[in-house]
Amino acid sequence: MPTPEPSAGPPPVSRGAVRGTFDRMGRNLLGGPGRVPGADIARGIAVLGMFTAHVGTTSDDIGTLEGWLGLAHGRSSILFATVAGLSLALFTGGGTPLTGDAMRTARSRILVRAVLLLALVAVLDLLGPTVMLILGFYAAYFVLALPFLRLPPARLAVAAVIVAVVGPFLVYYGTEALARAGLRAPHDGSGAITDFLLTGQYPALVWMAYVFAGLAVGRCDLRSPTLRLGLVFGGFGLAAVSAIVSSSLVASAGGIEAIDRLLAMTSSEYLGEVPAWSDPWPPLAGLFLDGPHNDTMFEALGSGGFALGVVGLCLLVGGRGGAGAGAATSRSARQIARRVVRAVTAPLAAVGAMALTVYSVQVVIIWWWSRADVDLLAYPINGPLSVMVLSALAAATLWRALFGGGPLERVFARIARTAFPTSERAWNAVSDTVSNAVSDTASGASSNAASNAGPDAGPDAASDPASEPTSDPVSDPVSDPVSDPVSDPTSTLRTPPDRRSS
Question: How much is the pTM?
Fold first, then answer.
């Protein structure tokens, strides 16, 4: 009887295949040569900061861990808005803005993403979340930024300062004027424009200052050490000066309690009956405050400066990316140190690269536990926050290593590309922009838009960095989420008491 031949087992996995898989995972984690790792890290800090603002136990005592966590209130969403402006700049050419058909295509895709954001926030809002959702406001910011995408950095910086100084005055007295004129606050979609601009939790008349500031940074050379150090020292310096001046003015007005008492007696937000035009108006001292979501000039300058300082630090830590082959093979101590830093910060960058997905999952988790009568927003300890932060870091790192871009980011990018494919003329314009940028060493970081695309990537890959199916480009402006206001339709309150802001 013939002896049966032994069945062949699975073919052995070659060492080359295993090494290739790990190399691909490493490239995904580091984002590839066209990424701006520092921007990913900054966005990751903003996302986890919003976790802290939503479910963290915080205090005003800066000498404790809870006090340091308290810095996340207000600042995390402002950092998000700033990085959103930076992302818009990178999405439209970086330091060398796109022109012609390429810019029209980019603007059209931004509009598509704005519509998708509105659809997503509508779904999340159906859950009745206990946190404020900023996604609808982000959609408005993207649309409002479209006419300014080709402005140079200096003009964008001036626009940011003007909005930061004038916008708070308009919001502070504008909402009061609406109430005293007998006009109601928006309570449905019909009043969306008023809500987005003036009466909402994140009014564009103030928050566009952060978007403009981010746009200004994105139009600069992100590799420049001068820029990075300027952002760090200038940003944190502005935050410190703003806090000192605010504190002095508040003290001269009798302190926060005195200002609060005056507001309680004069503002229609707190009075049972809307006051008449001739009645005392809210005191100017209310604009001296710089607390979270006060939307005053001092908060705009202070927290906006803080956000710019964080962006500068992240650019210093994460670098600009885009290392060439020579740098990749360098064994210098500096290059090794840079690789170690990027490996350590990879989980944070992974969260930032898929911020839309991570943020949306966070909202769902908070809603899910609320169904079991567990209010994560009122938890007495930071255990839930620790679990959520560590889980987000681990899950985002694993996903990015295996697949690249986050699921929602990939869906948004695919829909935008399908709705507005890149024409041959636009592709040629992008190619010319890239060639000019590469030839100028002073603006080596100026064109993120096409640096993700290899020679065989085709037009879409260059004009829309989000088109690379295994990447998660920082230039996708929709990787930046946060919160949406639902106010009592019968009141003028801009901060509903049952929802926590970022």
Answer: 0.81
